[in-house]
Amino acid sequence: MDTGEPGDPRRTIELLWGVPGPPRRGPKPKLSVEHVVRAGIRIADADGLDAVTMRRIADELGVATMSLYTYVPGREELLELMLDHAHGELPGELPEGWRAGLAAVAEDLWRLYHRHPWLLEIRVGRPTLGPHTFAKYERELAAMDELGLDDVQLDAIVSLVNGLVAGAARGSVDASRAARRSGMTDLVWWNRSAPVLAGIPAADPVHFPRASRVGTTAGQTYGGSSDPEHHFRFGLDRILDGIAQLAGA
Fold first, then answer.
1. H, E, C per residue of the chain
2. Residue 231 contacts by C-beta under 8 Å, 6 or more apart in sequence?
3. Model confidence at 4: pLDDT above 50
4. What digits encode the pLDDT tens for the residues 47-89?
5. Quick one: which of 137, 117, 142 has its CA closest to 127?
6. How far apart are CA 40 and CA 36, in angstroms?
7. 186-227 pLDDT, tens per residue?
8. Taking the model in full, what pTM does it have?
9. Nearest-angstrom CA–CA distance, 36 and 133
10. Per-residue b/e over 30-53, b at no fewer than 16 CB within 10 Å?
11. What are φ and ψ of residue 85, in 5° steps?
């Protein structure tokens, strides 16, 4: 899901960093930006990102929908606030050694995506310029302090690791959703699908020898059509091996 372009980048940044807006006349506000953000996260965790609307949040908080706009300019800004807030759940400490450090960075992000799958649906297009997202990037870079790589290489590695985690986590989340929607495990799905394929001459494995061999072996190993967690850890090890070669570590 693309959030689009925020209407007022300046106000979004101020909200992310807790800079108060211009003073308002009238009674003291009943809520805070934090209340609105937390309500959005609760709804997204329960029902997905599409359920996060200003009206739904207003109902959750027991206020009029229009009153929310005194705290957050709109939904696009709210999603950036939710994203940055979720990044605040990531730990700050790192284990010793660059390889263990980067592995921890990836594992922590993998777990975060599974706690909040809606994070995988947000497409802001540009970095979220909030304190928790800055802290996330700082930690990712700190894991590589001992490697002696240049700044562009460090940034590219962060992007590479984040891309791997997001892609594998998306596959994991999608597989879980497919199982819930269909009421079938991968094994049940395959047991129903295989006889249908076997009855189609054009799908005979003789026409696809490599796909048939590799797919069968992998499926037997995974106990299903795929294993995103295995793909995540396999990919992470290969990235770490490549970094070691690049840095001579």
1. CECCCCCCHHHHHHHHCCCCCCCCCCCCCCCCHHHHHHHHHHHHHHHCHHHCCHHHHHHHHCCCHHHHHHCCCCHHHHHHHHHHHHHCCCCCCCCCCHHHHHHHHHHHHHHHHHHCHHHHHCECCCCCCCHHHHHHHHHHHHCCHHHCCCHHHHHHHHHHHHHHHHHHHHHHHHHHHHHHHHCCCHHHHHHHHHHHHHCCHHHCHHHCHHHHHHHHHHHHHHCCCCCHHHHHHHHHHHHHHHHHHHHCC
2. 168, 171
3. no
4. 999 999 999 999 999 999 999 999 999 999 999 999 999 999 9
5. 137
6. 6
7. 888 888 888 998 899 998 999 999 999 999 999 888 888 889
8. 0.91
9. 19
10. eeebebbbbbbbebbeeeebeebe
11. -60, -45
Q: What angle do CA 78, 82, 84 make, to 5 degrees?
A: 115
Q: Which residues contact 75 (CB under 8 A, 6 or more apart)?
A: 3, 52, 53, 54
User: 191: which residues sit within 8 A by CB, 6+ positions away?
Assistant: none
**Location of structure tokens 């690049």:** 246
Name the residue type at position 210: R
